[in-house]
Amino acid sequence: MIKGLLRIIIAIIFIASGFVKAVDLVGFSFKMEEYFEPPVFNMPFLEKFALLFSIIMVVLELWLGLMLLLKLKLKFTLSALIALCVFFGFLTFYSAYFNVVTDCGCFGDAIKFTPWQSFIKDIVLLAGLIILFILYSKEFQKTDEYSDRQPTRSYAKIKYTVLGVCSLILIYFMTVGIIKEPLIDFRDYKIGTDLNAEKKKIAANPFEYKTFYSMKNEKTKEVRKVNQDDYIKQTEYWAENTPWKIEEDKNESVLVKEGYKSEIAKFKVENTEGGEVTDEILNAPEAVIIFSYHPHDVSPELLKQVEAKVNLNKNAVKYGVSTIPTTFKTVKNAMMDETAIKTIARSNPFVLTLKNGKIIDKQPAKDYIK
Hints:
Number of helices: 12
Structural class: alpha+beta
Largest sheet: 6 strands, mixed
Radius of gyration: 26 Å
Number of strands: 10
């Protein structure tokens, strides 16, 4: 009873984790790219394979989770899941210890974990899988579903049929997510989101940080960590001829109060002169924005067609937002951080339509011009 319940719980966790990543494979591949960048593993030559690696990892996670739930090939399934968990555990520990990837993307955009929370989750899962391996070890030697007993063989066929049907559903969700946009949108920029309302929530409940200075006494060589408030209050640290000096390269900014968390905090659009046009876009009765995070990869003909259709809307505020100030020819160019653009939608390019700051439509450019 207990081992069966533990098996189901762990299987559901792997299935849920795999599913939210399968829905948004492109988004997960962006996360994989972060691991290949110089600050982390410094393997930029692997960035072009990020989507392929994402597909392999997600398929493994989902299939193995389903096999565990259906109790298929238990020894192989548990062994593979333990190996997968060790691999994920290494990645999350590396991210947490060196503070290089702040969100592992374990549950996509559906549930956010800090690096240490992700690592603890992996350790708990690993412990659970090892316990399951021990509890089920006696069954590994028993006759499996391929025995000659007809009822057992029929039961196995049902299980493999379920696995096959789930695989087809998985392929469908993955394909749509790669070619177009995720069928289920877990992001902060889902259709219906009011960006103005979100920005008000962010402003009303901001994150609060304090600077901690590393103070060194040049006479005694003593070193202290002093927060910004104590530094101001205690004159010994800044009075004339004080032996205490700030070690500039050792100061830290520490989060002291967590505020309202939303990716919309990064929605900042600047014109090509560096002036911010975010308010113009969000306060417009209607705004149609073309976004491209990799403009060099976009066909000039496609951009021409998208701009032509956008320009048919005479009453809307229109901008073309990318990482290069000369991307668009017939709509006003504007700039935005590449990561921030990728957070809004996965297609390159895509078109976002707002009414009074509320998202009413979001489409890949190829769908928009149809």
